[in-house]
């Protein structure tokens, strides 16, 4: 992790910690996706409420 990722993760924590119960690990993952301009694939979309990254849920259980 570099300083840029850490700062963005901190911003995400400040913004979403209370409303979405964001934890540090998810904040760092989201910040890394933002810095690297990557798509974040997860089955747990509710962990990533950020509007400035692209999140894809590839499938849902039972589908």
Explain what the structure shows:
- This protein has 63 residues and is mainly alpha-helical.
- The chain has one domain: 3-Layer(aba) Sandwich (Rossmann fold), CATH 3.40.50.
- It contains 2 helices and 2 strands.
- It has helices spanning 3-20, 24-35, and strands at residues 39-41, 54-56.
- A two-stranded parallel sheet has the order 1-2.
- Helix 1 packs across helix 2.
- The longest helix has 18 residues, at 3-20.
- The chain is globular and about 40 Å long.
- The mean pLDDT is 94.
Primary descriptors:
single chain; 63 residues; mainly alpha; Rossmann fold; two-stranded parallel sheet; 2 helices
State the total count of DSSP E strands: 2
- Label the structural class: mainly alpha
Estimate percent helicity.
40-55%
Could you tell me how far the N terminus lies from the C terminus, measured between alpha carbons in angstroms? 35 Å
Q: Can you say what the CATH homologous superfamily is?
A: 5'-nuclease
Radius of gyration: 12 Å
Query: What is the CATH first-level class name?
Result: Alpha Beta
Q: What is the fold-level CATH name, i.e. the topology?
A: Rossmann fold
**Main beta sheet, described?**
2 strands, parallel
CATH architecture: 3-Layer(aba) Sandwich
Q: What count of helical segments does DSSP give?
A: 2
The sequence of SSEs as H and E is HHEE
In what range is the share of β-strand residues?
5-15%
What order do the strands of the largest sheet run in, or round the barrel if closed? 1-2
Instruction: Give the low-confidence spans.
Output: none
Q: How many structural domains are formed by the residues?
A: 1
Overall form: globular
Report the average pLDDT across residues: 94
């Amino acid at each position: 992790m570099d300083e840029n990722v850490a700062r963005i993760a901190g911003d995400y924590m400040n913004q979403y910690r209370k409303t979405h119960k964001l934890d540090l690990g998810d904040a760092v993952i989201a910040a890394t996706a933002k810095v690297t301009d990557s798509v974040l694939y997860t089955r747990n979309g509710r962990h990533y409420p950020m509007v400035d990254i692209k999140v894809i849920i590839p499938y849902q259980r039972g589908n």
